[in-house]
Automatic annotation (TrEMBL):
Protein name in the entry: Cysteine-rich CPCC domain-containing protein
């Protein structure tokens, strides 16, 4: 069994690669749960001004914004087929599963 990595946006623990490598170079993996693409959706996020921010600050703010959107969209799944039917309600992750994932972010300090 290969190692799995956790999405710092939604807490999904099924990523196949680390989200970032040295100096915040993104893996370009797309989270099957929230749809965030590491190395693209962070540095291309135009919702806030990047000037004067460190790469870490840009990544963290992008994650916060995307997480908020995912929550407001009622935990809509990016790849519905990646989740067993007992964990989803149509094209949405069940709330209990979403809360468990979001708590994982806090525990792992992501």
């Amino acid at each position: 069994m290969c190692a799995r990595y956790t999405c710092p946006v939604c807490g999904y623990d099924g990523l196949e690669e680390p989200t970032y490598y040295e100096n915040f170079a993104g893996s370009n993996e797309i989270c099957a749960c929230c749809g965030f693409e590491f190395g693209v959706d962070d540095f291309d996020c135009d919702t806030f001004e990047h000037e004067g921010l460190t790469e870490r600050e840009i990544v963290e703010e992008s994650h916060r914004i995307w997480r908020e959107k995912w929550i407001n969209d009622h935990f809509e799944l990016f790849d519905v087929s990646a989740f067993p039917k007992e964990k989803k309600n149509g094209r949405f992750l069940k709330e209990a599963g979403a809360i468990k994932q979001l708590n994982r972010i806090k525990k792992e300090g992501l």
